[in-house]
Specification:
Layout (H helix, E strand, L loop, with lengths): L9 H14 L4 H15 L4 E7 L5 E7 L10 E2 L4 H9 L3 E3 L21 E9 L2 E10 L7 H20 L5 H6 L8 E4 L1 E4 L2 E8 L14 H23 L11 H11 L2 H12 L4 H16 L5 H22 L12 E5 L4 H5 L6 E6 L7 H9 L3 E3 L13 E5 L4 E4 L3 H23 L14 E6 L6 H6 L4 E5 L1 H5 L7 H15 L4 E4 L27 H6 L1 H14 L4 E6 L5 H20 L7 E8 L8 H4 L5 E4 L1 H8 L18 H16 L4 E3 L7 H9 L4 E4 L1 H13 L2 H12 L7 H10 L5
Parallel strand pairs: 9-10, 10-11, 11-12, 15-16, 15-22, 16-17, 17-18, 18-19, 19-20, 20-21
Antiparallel strand pairs: 1-2, 1-6, 2-3, 4-5, 5-6, 7-14, 8-12, 9-13, 13-14
Helix pairs in contact: 1-2, 6-7, 6-8, 6-10, 7-10, 8-9, 9-10, 16-18, 18-19, 23-24, 25-26
Length: about 750
């Protein structure tokens, strides 16, 4: 065999011959046979074979030059069987000088391959999945060099695209060749935002399949690639410098990583070599991306796997530069289900809300930014779906079950009908909740409960009237900062807060000051790496360390509330001294406004969020200093149980309806009652009927729930008899069980409470 790859005719001539064979007439098998003969001759190989993956997962010999012709369509290898199966499993090339001595070698006597020692196999990659294997073999025991491996990878890429397009196979064969997943599947994940939806898959920044694989002018393609790379790098530089290129929600650190990878010599060299082999610039990017994806996806090290996503995103952006596309102007179908590895809040907001039915994520958490935005937009969302993107193709039908935390891929008609029935029931329940919109939330024994809603986006303001909430119990001010590419200026902050107060009218609004740090990183603030960011410099700690940032926000709040009531609360107060220091900053800003004759709020109330367990033993010192407190159950419970609520490995290790959690909540309520300090609950518990039942039974009369929870919680309140419920709850508080959820459910059923 000629050393150094293809014969002197070169890779471009071979690719042209393959294209001609594919375009020729006659039966599909004849064209396949012509392809393997052409490859064998050009690579001076004594054997060339093509194996394709059947829907069963088996790899079937579809064509060969040099092996027994009778083995074609008769030889099938189980998943992972033999060297061919190993190439498919690893999704990367294997080169051996003595194949029979390899432990994975599988001898199939019907093929007659026993005299061949040298083996070189490359996967036919489609979307990072191996849909087949291309093999060349020689009798002599020798190792194929790097150029030969490079050549066979280029050929394998072209074959993968042509197989997927149907050019090489008869239609009856194509139906049984698994070029993409096509069977119904059910994936179990975690529910991030409740609801049900079905529609068609739209991949977030979906890879664009190159329309033309082979180039007619390699020099021109090299120039196109070089120009696109320059434009890509310039665009990233512009974003790093805060220019016009907008990539909302992406951190400065990620952009720097993109810039570093854009300059990566290995990546650039791989692209250039792929173009010189005869591929178009788009096909070269697609091929290199597939190679990286297949290689990195097998790595166990999470850092290395994360680099895969960096390269994938970079490749996608390069393809868009080549295509001249603007990713912010995608035309979505009316029933789009967005599929992504993960999302930032701005990424989700870029899509047209009226066309987006649901969201499926491979990663993330219920407390992630995308999940919070999805709940605000009332978009069903399921996350932690491992391998999701490899199991879906653009346009596949899919069901998002935000009630059970499941996704149904390519569902059967009966499953689709069942979901449609459930959606009709949900619509009926929603209509019932709408009828309760203007009904006061009063229990059967006459206790008045105030139901507020949580907000953080302008779109949330629509929910005030739609749900009948009596105000906003928690406005998360950080969302404005998280979806911006630069620090929002004073006038921008003031405008947003005024918009919120105008929309609320005479209904109360409680603004939480900036709660960033931890998992909420702003791209335009310098952030030191912390070993444990959840316990690091976040929320009020960051505000006190950077008083100018906090003072600007307070100044904007005071200006927006001129002549109206203003309620401000500080997040993650861990010590009384922190609250004193934060309140002093408010006093400083009030004095600043007075000296300049600026209008002030008619009434200013300053409160603290109870999220740190340390306050449980210092409420007697804190409460006299506050005008009100609000309990953030999400953080309070994760700190109580030392379990990161964003980590699926430990987030379900504790139940909020457990005696320790309920006793802590009961003690806070009692201390607030004793000191006549208004108290509310604004965590996720307040929006779930069963948990809200436990809260009002403990004595809480002010709940702030997500918009979707207002109706169900109000229905629960209208059906509750608190004196009877309190007698039952008193017994449960003394339980030694890890959870009393079942007992609380039984109590609610016994009292006919709608939970």
């Amino acid at each position: 065999m000629v050393k150094g790859g293809l014969t002197t005719r070169g890779p471009r001539n071979l690719l042209r011959q393959i294209r001609e064979a594919m375009a020729g007439g006659g039966p599909a098998q004849d064209r396949l046979d012509m392809v393997v003969r052409t490859i064998a001759q050009s690579m001076v190989a004594e054997v060339c074979s093509i194996y394709l993956r059947r829907a069963s997962g088996e790899l079937e010999l579809f064509a060969t030059q040099g092996l027994n012709p009778e083995a074609v369509h008769n030889t099938r290898l189980r998943p992972g069987e033999g060297l061919v199966g190993e190439v498919a499993r690893l999704a990367q090339p294997i080169s051996l000088s003595d194949a029979p001595s390899h432990p994975s070698f599988s001898y199939r006597p019907e093929t007659g391959e026993d005299p061949f020692h040298a083996f070189l196999g490359a996967p036919l990659l489609r979307g990072g999945r191996a849909i087949g294997v291309l093999v060349v073999q020689n009798r002599a025991a020798r190792r194929y060099d790097e150029e030969e491996v490079e050549d066979i990878q280029t050929i394998a890429m072209v074959l993968a695209e042509t197989v997927a397009s149907g050019e090489l196979l008869a239609q009856d064969e194509l139906r049984d060749v698994e070029v993409a997943p096509h069977r119904p599947e059910r994936l179990k994940g975690q529910k991030f935002a409740e609801g049900l939806a079905y529609g068609v898959v739209v991949q977030h920044e979906a890879p664009l399949a190159p329309e033309q694989l082979l180039s007619d002018d390699p020099a021109a393609e090299e120039r196109r690639l070089a120009e696109a790379l320059s434009a890509l790098k310039a665009g990233i530089d512009e974003m790093l410098e805060g220019g016009q290129g907008k990539l909302g929600g992406t951190s400065f650190e990620v952009l720097e990583t993109y810039r570093m990878f854009a300059d990566d010599r290995g990546w650039n060299r791989s692209l250039e070599e792929a173009v010189r082999s005869g591929l178009t610039a788009e096909a070269a990017v697609d091929r290199v991306r597939n190679e990286h994806r297949a290689r990195f996806a097998k790595a166990r090290d999470p850092y290395i796997r994360e680099r895969l996503h960096d390269f994938e995103d970079l490749a996608n952006r390069l393809l868009r530069v080549l295509a001249g596309d603007n990713p912010g102007q995608r035309d979505l179908p009316d029933d789009a289900i967005l599929v992504a590895r993960n999302l930032g809040p701005a990424d989700l907001l870029e899509y047209p809300r009226h066309k987006l039915r649901g969201l499926l994520l491979e990663e993330g958490s219920a407390a992630s930014h995308a999940a919070i935005v999805a709940r605000a937009l009332q978009i069903p969302c399921v996350g932690r779906l491992q391998g999701l993107r490899d199991r879906l193709s653009e346009g596949d039908q899919v069901i998002v079950d935000g009630e059970t935390g499941e996704a149904y891929l390519r569902p059967r008609p009966d499953m689709l009908a069942a979901v449609q029935t459930r959606m009709a029931v949900r619509d009926q329940r929603r209509a019932e909740f709408d009828l309760l919109r203007d009904t006061p939330a009063v229990t059967r024994d006459g206790t008045r409960i105030t139901i507020l809603t949580n907000a953080g986006l302008a779109v949330d303001l629509e929910n005030l009237d739609a749900t009948g909430a009596e105000g906003i119990g928690l406005f998360r001010t950080e969302f404005q900062f998280m979806v911006s590419d630069e620090l929002p200026r004073l006038d921008a902050q003031t405008a947003l807060y005024k918009l919120v107060l105008d929309a609320a009218g005479d209904r109360p609004v409680t603004f939480r000051t900036l709660d960033i740090g931890g998992d909420k990183v702003l791209p335009y603030l310098d952030n030191e790496r912390e070993e444990n960011p959840a316990l690091g410099r976040r929320a009020i700690r960051l505000g006190l360390d950077r008083p100018a940032l906090l003072r600007m926000q307070v100044r904007a709040l005071l200006a927006a509330a001129a002549g109206r009531e203003l309620r401000v609360m500080f997040p993650m107060i861990a010590t009384v001294d922190e609250f004193r220091a934060a309140r002093e900053l408010v006093d400083v800003e009030c004095d600043w406004a007075r000296r300049r004759g600026r209008p002030l709020p008619s009434l200013l109330r300053v409160g603290a969020m109870v999220e740190c367990p340390s306050l449980l033993w210092h409420l007697d010192a804190l409460l006299p200093l506050t005008d009100f407190v609000s309990i953030g159950t999400n953080d309070l419970l994760q700190y109580m149980f030392a379990a990161d609520r964003t980590n699926p490995l430990v987030s379900d290790r504790y139940d909020p309806l457990s005696p320790p959690a309920l006793r802590a909540l009961a003690e806070i309520q009692q201390k607030c009652a004793d000191s006549a300090t208004p108290v509310s609950v604004c965590g996720e518990l307040a929006g779930r009927p069963l948990e809200a039942f436990a809260l009002i039974t403990l004595g809480y009369t002010r709940l702030s729930a997500p918009a979707g929870g207002v109706g169900p919680v109000k229905r629960m309140i209208l059906s509750a008899d608190l004196p009877a419920a309190r007698r039952g709850m008193a017994v449960l508080l003394g339980s030694s069980a890890g959870s009393v959820r079942g007992e609380i459910e039984s109590l609610a059923r016994k009292l006919n409470v709608s939970v």
